[in-house]
Design goal:
- The complex is a heterodimer of chains A (165) and B (161).
- Chain A has helices spanning 17-25, 29-32, 46-56, 76-84, 95-98, 112-122, 142-152; strands at 40-41, 60-64, 70-75, 105-107, 126-130, 136-141, 156-157, 162-163.
- Chain A is of the alpha/beta class.
- Chain A has a 3-stranded mixed sheet with strand order 1-2-3. Chain A has a 3-stranded mixed sheet with strand order 4-5-6.
- The longest helix of chain A is centred in the first third of the chain and has 11 residues, at 46-56.
- Chain B has 161 residues and is of the alpha/beta class.
- Chain B contains 7 helices and 6 strands.
- In chain B, the strands form 2 sheets. Chain B has a 3-stranded mixed sheet.
- The chains are: A alpha/beta (165), B alpha/beta (161).
- Chains A and B meet through helix 1, helix 3, helix 4, helix 6 and helix 7 of A and helix 1, helix 2, helix 3, helix 6 and helix 7 of B.
Chain lengths: 165, 161
C-alpha cells in the first residue's frame, strides 16, 4: 500500500533557504500517511482475518472493538505463529485472542524525522496516526517513507503518489 | 497538487536526496542474509522464520543465485490451505503424498538489485512494488545481502539528524 502524498494544505513559497529548511523540517506525518486504514474487528475469526489480510496484502491491521475504537494490532507474524503452532487451535480463535493489546500512535502534526526515529527505535513498521482528540485518522508505514524518498528523487507522479520508474 | 513543489524542498531533503542518489545499496544492506533452498520443507522454513524473526528470504540455487522470494505471506497462504479439514484419513494421505516444500509456494521470479544500485532506485522499486525487502546481488549475480525498508528508514534517520 502506498500512502497518499498530497500537499493539501500547500505551502507559501519561502524567500530564504533558512526558512525553507525550517518549514520542511516540519513536513508532517499527516501529509504522508494513508487516510484509509484497513482494520479488523476484535471478534473476527482468525481464519477470516488471515484471509482478508492476505487478500488486501497488508502485513498488519489495527483491531477495532465493538464501538469502532482501535484497541490493538494484529500482524502476519502473529498469525503465522498461531497457525503453525501445534498446541493452539487457531481455527477456534478470534482476533482478540491473538492481537497485541496496545498501539504505537503518533500525532498527525509530528515531523517526519521523528516518525523515522520511532520506526528505528521501536522496531515497528507502522504507526497509527491520531488527531488532537486522540482518534485514529490514518496510518503511516515504512513503505510510505520509501515513497517519500522516491518522490524526492523525482520518481513519483500523480496525486496518490503512484511511483513511476 | 501533483508533484512536490520545489519551494518546500529543504536543505535536509536535498541532502537526503543527494545521499540517496549517491549511496550504493551495498553500504546499507544486511550482509548476513538467510537464504533458503527450493527443496526445504515448509515446516522447517516456518520454524526458521519464527525463531529467527525473519519476514522474507531469497530462494537461491547452489551458486546463491536468486530464484525467487519466500515471505511470511506465502507461508500463511500455504498454512491456511494445508490446514483445511480433509474428510477422511485415506483421502488425506492421497491428497498430501509428500511434504510441501519451498518450491511449491515461492514466487517464481525475483526482484533483485546489483549492489552498486543507488538507494533512491531501491526505495522507488520498493514503493512501486509494495515490497519490504530486496535481495542484493554481486556482479557475478549471487546474493550478497538483503535490503529492507527498515534499513533505509534507519539510514534516513541517521542522515536527518
Amino acid at each position: 500500500m502506498v500512502g497518499a502524498l498530497s500537499l493539501e494544505h500547500g505551502y507559501a513559497p519561502m524567500a530564504s533557504t533558512h526558512l525553507r529548511a525550517r518549514v520542511s523540517r516540519h513536513t508532517s506525518v499527516g501529509q504522508l500517511m494513508s487516510r484509509t486504514v484497513f482494520c479488523l474487528n476484535v471478534d473476527t475469526s482468525l481464519e477470516d482475518a488471515t484471509r482478508r489480510l492476505l487478500e488486501q496484502g497488508f502485513s498488519a491491521a489495527p483491531v477495532l472493538d465493538s464501538v469502532g475504537k482501535p484497541i490493538g494490532i494484529i500482524s502476519k507474524a502473529d498469525l503465522l505463529e498461531a497457525w503453525s503452532s501445534a498446541s493452539e487451535d487457531a481455527s477456534a480463535m478470534v482476533v482478540g485472542d491473538l492481537m497485541i493489546p496496545y498501539l504505537t500512535t503518533i500525532p498527525e502534526e509530528t515531523p517526519l524525522f521523528v516518525a523515522m526515529n520511532l520506526f528505528q527505535h521501536e522496531g515497528t513498521h507502522r504507526l497509527i496516526v491520531t488527531n488532537a482528540a486522540h482518534q485514529m485518522v490514518g496510518i503511516i508505514t515504512e513503505l510510505d517513507m520509501m515513497t517519500w524518498l522516491a518522490q524526492l528523487s523525482g520518481f513519483c507522479r500523480g496525486s496518490n503518489s503512484e511511483v513511476e520508474l | 497538487m501533483n508533484s512536490w513543489p520545489l519551494s518546500v524542498r529543504s536543505l535536509e531533503e536535498d541532502a537526503i536526496r543527494l545521499a540517496a542518489e549517491e549511496t550504493p545499496v551495498r553500504s546499507l544492506m544486511n550482509r548476513s542474509v538467510v537464504c533458503v533452498d527450493r527443496d526445504t520443507p515448509l515446516e522447517s522454513v516456518t520454524r526458521l522464520f519464527l525463531d529467527g524473526d525473519i519476514t522474507g528470504a531469497p530462494v537461491v540455487d547452489v551458486d546463491f543465485r536468486p530464484l525467487g522470494m519466500l515471505t511470511k505471506s506465502d507461508l500463511l497462504h500455504a498454512l491456511i490451505d494445508f490446514t483445511k479439514p480433509v474428510p477422511s484419513p485415506i483421502l488425506r494421505s492421497a491428497r498430501t503424498p509428500r511434504v510441501p516444500r519451498v518450491s511449491d509456494i515461492s514466487s517464481p521470479f525475483v526482484l533483485a538489485l546489483p549492489e552498486e544500485t543507488p538507494v533512491s532506485i531501491a526505495a522507488a522499486l520498493m514503493a512501486y512494488e509494495g515490497i519490504h525487502r530486496l535481495p542484493i546481488t554481486s556482479a557475478q549475480g549471487d546474493v550478497v545481502g538483503i535490503l529492507s525498508t527498515s534499513d533505509i528508514v534507519r539510514w534516513m534517520a541517521r542522515n536527518l539528524l
